Automatic annotation (TrEMBL):
Gene Ontology biological-process entries: peptide transport
Record-annotated Solute-binding protein family domain positions: 84-464
Protein name: Peptide ABC transporter substrate-binding protein
Pfam families registered for this protein in UniProt: SBP_bac_5 (PF00496)
Keyword Membrane belongs to the record: no
Organism: Macrococcus hajekii
Keywords (A to Z) from UniProt: Peptide transport, Protein transport, Signal, Transport
Length: 542
């Protein structure tokens, strides 16, 4: 799962679905344009902040992934709407019981330093993520594999993990259960190979172009931390002839208005997320690309922290939030109120959307919010709510969003909430350390299915930072993996969402929608429901 976590740098970027008409038209225009290529194939972008890491084992956020996905290459890559396409793998053979995958690598694969890339590099990379000593961000993304969870949790042996390089070109992977979407799972960052010699140079091997070795379309050129980062075409990449860009330069400008000014002046070629207050000024622009985004903006509770250890208090806070007003008056970019956790975009065999087929949870109801708060306080033996702090990163619209939530809780429940903002990279550590009562976070699905986002809150998920656990919830998720009838599988996932929304370790606010600006002379940028704009096959024209 991408990582299945997706910690986003701006709430506007964490928004949901599958491409609309305008984005499809733009994609078609990119493919059929006949202008001459520009002499200088350099793309200028903005990350919005410092990437947390470029080591696939520790990446947890879309800022990092935007770079990582361009400098590493897996067995599969994401095609349209996340559908897997063979990448480093030449072919894959699946056993009759669908539990054993045998991958045959392409001939002549190389690392960016010229070393041969073999199946052993994939085995090493995957087992490194699972190694308890690594303390990787998302080892649970590999728990589909036989013996993986036991090894990672120190209950099993390395030799029992179902990952084995039979020879330099053959990787054999054994699963616990047949998983129909396994090829989609292994498009994620935890499944990238890493170069053992590079890793063994020290813990900061991925922080400098001098030591980072990768295998993707691009490689790291330089990284001036907290200022800029640049990647350059990787001449060792097996499919290098399809890569038109020579270089991609990233700024790290956090202020969205400054970012927009840089775009207007021509210093940036693409704007990932148009600021809400500016969107109305560019709504008729040919450069605007709007598309659904399979994601959800949330606030997470640490259920071990008072007073949000009480379920009724958590529910009261949720009923006190006017989500429709939030998306209309704050985000202003086509987002939808999140009356549930799984976003729009997942269709069943009859074309029904999982969200439309599910319940509506926590529609705005101040009276019910007050009732639940009173009941929760009584259960805790309290006369009023103790101090509550909401933590958020300050980039983009996130601080303003937190202030609006603060105002709603004051107006509807009479409670005072303090806001604490942190710089993105620091905030990620705060979140991972569970140092919060209530904290902003956004999640993005790795592929269009309810399972990857719901599985974030399984008891064994390494991306569950809420301290919430529920055996019935875990059982439903496990049953869904074994259920072959898709209608029954989706019903199990609806039941799981019911539990999640009742217990409420997280507070969903909005489902996503993305509004990007792309210069008309930049062609071949892919936009879809699952990621930031993909520039890998982009080309600049005169």
């Amino acid at each position: 799962m991408k990582k299945i976590l997706v910690l986003l740098t701006a709430l506007l970027v964490i928004l949901a679905g599958c491409g609309d008409k305008k984005s499809e038209q733009t994609g078609q225009k990119d493919q059929t344009a006949s202008k001459k290529p520009a002499k200088e194939q350099v793309l200028n972008l903005n990350l919005g902040g410092e990437p947390y890491t470029l080591d696939p084992a520790f990446a947890s956020d879309t800022t990092s992934w935007w770079v990582i996905d361009s400098i590493y290459s897996g067995l599969y890559k994401k095609g349209k709407n996340g559908e897997p396409e063979l990448e480093a793998a030449e072919k894959v053979d699946v056993s009759p019981d669908k539990k054993t995958y045998t991958f045959t690598l392409k001939d002549g694969l190389k690392w960016s330093n010229g070393d041969n890339l073999t199946a052993k590099d994939f085995e090493y990379g995957w087992k490194r993520v699972l190694d308890p000593k690594t303390a990787a961000y998302s080892p649970s993304a590999l728990y589909f594999i036989e013996g993986a969870e036991a090894y990672n949790t120190k209950k099993g042996k390395l030799e029992d993990v179902g990952i084995h390089a039979k020879d330099d070109k053959t990787l054999v992977v054994k699963l616990k259960n047949p998983i129909s979407f396994f090829p989609k799972v292994i498009t994620g960052a935890p499944y990238y190979p890493v170069n053992k010699k590079a890793v063994e140079k020290g813990k900061n091997w991925a922080a400098s172009a001098d030591t980072l070795v990768s295998n993707g379309p691009f490689k790291l050129k330089n990284w001036k931390h907290n200022d800029s980062l640049a990647i350059t075409k990787n001449d060792q990449y097996f499919d290098k002839d399809k890569i038109k860009l020579s270089d991609v330069n990233f700024r790290m400008v956090a202020d969205t208005n400054t970012e927009y000014q840089l775009y207007q002046s021509g210093d940036l070629d693409l704007l990932v997320s148009v600021p809400a207050d500016i969107l109305k000024n560019v709504k008729d622009s040919k450069e605007l690309v709007s598309y659904d985004n399979f994601s959800v903006g949330t606030y997470s509770f640490n259920v071990n922290e008072k007073p949000v250890d009480n379920k009724k208090i958590r529910q009261a806070l949720s009923y006190a939030i006017d989500r429709q007003s939030f998306v209309t008056n704050v985000l202003k970019g086509g987002q939808k109120p999140a009356y549930g956790y799984v976003s729009y975009g997942v269709k069943d065999s009859e074309g029904k959307d999982f969200r439309d087929d599910g319940k509506k949870y926590y529609e705005y109801d101040p009276a019910k919010a007050k009732q639940l708060l009173a009941e929760g306080l009584k259960e805790e033996g309290l006369s009023q709510l103790p101090k509550l702090t909401l933590k958020t990163n300050g980039e983009g619209i996130n601080k303003k969003s937190a202030e609006v939530i603060q105002e709603m809780l004051k107006k509807n429940l009479g409670i005072d909430v303090s806001i604490e903002t942190q710089e993105w990279k620091t905030y990620i550590d705060t979140f991972k350390q569970k140092n919060f009562q209530l904290a902003r976070m956004g999640w993005n699905g790795d592929f269009l299915d309810p399972y990857p986002v719901l599985a974030l809150y399984a008891s064994n998920s390494s991306s569950n930072f809420t301290n919430w656990k529920n055996k019935k919830y875990d059982q439903l998720l496990e049953q869904s993996l074994k259920e072959k009838d898709d209608t029954k599988r989706l019903e199990l996932l609806h039941q799981a969402e019911d539990i999640l929304m009742d217990e409420l370790p997280i507070l969903p606010v909005n489902f996503g929608y993305s509004n990007s600006l792309i210069k008309e002379n930049v062609k071949g940028v892919k936009t879809d429901a699952l990621s930031r704009p993909n520039f890998i096959y982009a080309e600049k024209q005169e």
